[in-house]
Design the sequence.
């Protein structure tokens, strides 16, 4: 695909940046009527069949949700699955921007999110109005937005990326075209260094990947000298310098399987450890704690979803994710471009 064919998002940089999303259906008020916890997996399977639904779950979801999901993946894999599913209902176990992405790609399908309050600190750190002004200040820049942003920000972008494909996509942009990268500056710095391209960065970050303790990591390295340090590129640069391998969530999982190391110190949201331990049970995985030993490396938004909420949203088909159609269409173009350029 020639980038020149789609240099500018439809309608330019403004217009729909601040258009409101359609109000989401409120969550069900019934909170005490779910089956007992031991019966929930079977009850969810029955509802899934009845609704012709697919359950997509991010690696950062709790293990119980991963165990009932049809597809477990990172943002790129889940976007691909959302684009190709023939299900009538998509139950997205992740955070709000992920469910929005599924709706962007599937306007005719019902997309439900177990808890509508499952937001994202990184997406929230890039308000559409402020991003429109930032983009207007760099009118000659090609805008690449990390998928961890709202539909209204995607609608202002030339191309969407994930941590899996960001370097690959940046390298496809002509060398003479300056690039604006949003919203994660840590990921942007790593992409710039890895790709060799200069990037103008929006100053955003993820609260989870900002909280890992360098002191704790160094202590764990001393205690486990045989362990390999694997890190997500959203981590701060001084932590990435201590890593043996840097990659997206799915690449970290692949590394855990392919590396000869017997153990790993993991610098990302510890939900991924559930899959690592399932794939290579003979290996040992140590989540790096947050500052002062806190558990702040657990994403508070991802953990709002639960099995009972998943059952309830399949039963009631709400809360639903809805989008303004003009914003959806503008956001669809850079999403489709990403999928085509990542093939």
Sequence:
């Amino acid at each position: 695909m020639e980038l020149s064919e789609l240099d500018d998002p439809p309608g330019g940089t403004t217009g729909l940046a601040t258009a409101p999303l359609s109000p989401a259906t409120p969550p069900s008020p019934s909170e005490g009527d779910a089956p007992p916890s031991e019966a929930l997996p079977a009850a969810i399977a029955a509802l899934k069949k009845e609704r012709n639904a697919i359950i997509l779950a991010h690696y950062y979801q709790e293990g119980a949700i991963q165990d009932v999901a049809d597809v477990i993946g990172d943002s790129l894999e889940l976007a691909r699955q959302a684009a190709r599913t023939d299900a009538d209902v998509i139950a997205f176990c992740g955070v709000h921007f992920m469910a929005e992405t599924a709706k962007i790609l599937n306007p005719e399908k019902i997309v439900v999110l177990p808890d509508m309050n499952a937001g994202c600190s990184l997406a929230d750190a890039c308000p559409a109005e402020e991003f429109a002004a930032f983009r207007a200040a760099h009118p000659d820049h090609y805008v690449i937005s990390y998928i961890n942003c709202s539909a209204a920000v995607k609608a202002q972008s030339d191309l969407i990326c994930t941590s899996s494909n960001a370097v690959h996509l940046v390298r496809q942009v002509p060398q003479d075209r300056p690039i604006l990268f949003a919203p994660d500056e840590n990921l942007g710095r790593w992409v710039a260094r890895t790709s060799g391209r200069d990037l103008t960065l929006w100053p955003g970050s993820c609260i989870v990947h900002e909280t890992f303790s360098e002191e704790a990591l160094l202590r764990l390295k001393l205690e486990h000298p045989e362990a390999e340090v694997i890190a997500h590129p959203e981590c701060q640069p001084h932590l990435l310098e201590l890593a043996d391998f840097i990659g997206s969530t799915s690449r970290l999982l692949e590394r855990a399987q392919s590396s000869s190391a017997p153990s790993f110190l993991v610098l990302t949201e510890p939900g991924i450890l559930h899959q690592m331990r399932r794939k290579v049970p003979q290996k040992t995985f140590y989540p790096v704690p947050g500052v002062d030993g806190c558990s702040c490396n657990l994403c508070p938004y991802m953990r709002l979803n639960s099995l009972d909420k998943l059952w309830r949203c399949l039963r009631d088909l709400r809360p639903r994710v809805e989008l303004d159609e003009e914003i959806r269409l503008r956001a669809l173009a850079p999403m489709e471009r990403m999928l085509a350029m990542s093939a």
The chain has three domains: 3-118+303-325, 123-201, 214-298. The chain is about 40% helix and 15% strand.
